[in-house]
Amino acid sequence: MSTTPLLHIEQRDEIVLLRLDRPDKRNSINNQLIAELGDFFAAPPEGMRVVVLHAAGEHFCAGLDLIEMLSQPKRNAIEGQRRSRAWHRVFDLMQFGEVPIVSVLKGAVVGGGLEMASATHVRVAEPSTFFQLPEGQRGIFVGGGGSVRIPRIIGPGRVVEMMLTGRRYDARQGLDLGLVHYLAEEGQGLAQALELARQIASNAPTSNYAVINGIARVAEMGYAEGLMAESFIAAATGADAAKRITGFFDARRQARGDGPAEPATDAAPDAAAAGPATGP
Ligand code: 1HE
Fold this sequence. Notes:
13 helices; alpha/beta; six-stranded mixed β-sheet; about 50% helix; binds 3-methylmercaptopropionate-CoA (MMPA-CoA)
């Protein structure tokens, strides 16, 4: 294992920029890189509210490090599963972690690169971006959650077809399919992602937490279970809602030239401590 980090970490106030820093190998994911990602997301730095995941060089990520894979032949099924399960743990920590992740896509977003991107919450792509799942052509299968996350975004039929034919989708097609949320100008992906990250960081942290941990899970539940789970999540959020809601109406009154609203502390002490009931 190299001692040079493959993940560059830079904290700018509430936003942490994580850069995949292996451009000479097209940011392909080896054991070291996945371990560094896992270490970061298992113990995120204090004060972090949003992560921007971007990449050095021309390509976001060329997927699994195929050279390393060849050098580590699996001896049995459990050993064979080990790498895949390690990726699952790390990408789960990302998708169901503490803060939203905005990714900046460009060039190759292939195989494990697409698996990683699909564990991020907001995806910004530059026009050079292309998506591919070349596992079939390499004689392997997705192992980083690709058969779980990607079909939930673009549908299982498209994933089957992508994997059988090795077809590439470009950035614009990615936008139509939901792999991309924002199409940036060439070279502007990071700037756009940072702008989005600042916007997301200004939300209530508990709301962001509820969104990234709640929506995808509730969507997997049955109707009644989903509604019940939603009501619990709604009850657990809203700690600073009174302040935010009052601020919202104050700003409107000020814009109209009226006086400020009554302070939110008018609420009963218990209710103020628990936060207002959210939802209907
Ligand atoms: C790599 C890898 C890699 C590049 N593992 N070393 N992923 C793939 O099948 C994608 C394979 N890579 C490519 O198709 C191309 O490299 C790219 C389209 C991404 C970029 O092309 P290009 O012309 O800019 O770069 P290059 O000349 O092909 O590669 C530059 C170097 O990166 C070269 O190393 P060098 O030492 O010869 O300079 C390549 O060997 C190295 N490189 N991609 C290792 N993937 C948990 S399951 C997930 C399963 C998968 O991810 S399957 C998809 C694997």
